[in-house]
Design goal:
Blueprint lengths: L1 H56 L6 H16 L5 H22 L3 H5 L1 H36 L3 H7 L24
Helix pairs in contact: 1-2, 1-5, 2-3
Amino acid sequence: MFGWIVLAIILVVAGYAVVVYNNLVRQRQLSKEGWSGIDVQLKRRTDLIPNLLESVKGYMAHERETLEAVTAARTAAQSAQNGTPEQRAQAEGVLSGALGRLFAVAEAYPDLKASQNFLQFQGELSNTENEIQLSRRYYNGTARDLNTAVESFPSNIFANIFHFEKVQYFELDNPADRAVPTVKF
């Protein structure tokens, strides 16, 4: 009889370990999916920028410094693509700031504000910024769930055994970077 009780306890613990392990795997996959969503939207934004700059160049030839700042920030954001969420957020924050300055300078050019190409890229960029915000919110939610499972008892025991680790949130350090660049005209 004692043998059956021990066997039953072992089976319950093993069953619980399987359930916890599968939950941790699911949380990790959701987190990866969330990060992929952010990555897609950030890539879309960096792909839109050259077209936006081309539509602006003719009108803003003497605003070379602003255009160069956007180009440099875009390059930095592209080079941070394989970095940590913290590194990526920092580079994307700089890019958002540079885009905000570009749109602020564009206010002085009425012909540019009426340009169909510029208006189209402005709308696309605004939509992309909204998608980035939604993707960031989804990713941070999945990161929270995974981190909670990795830190909570007793699932933390199995997380340590199977080498599950916490993931970083995608956060912007500078409060000014948290704001979506103003793209109204």
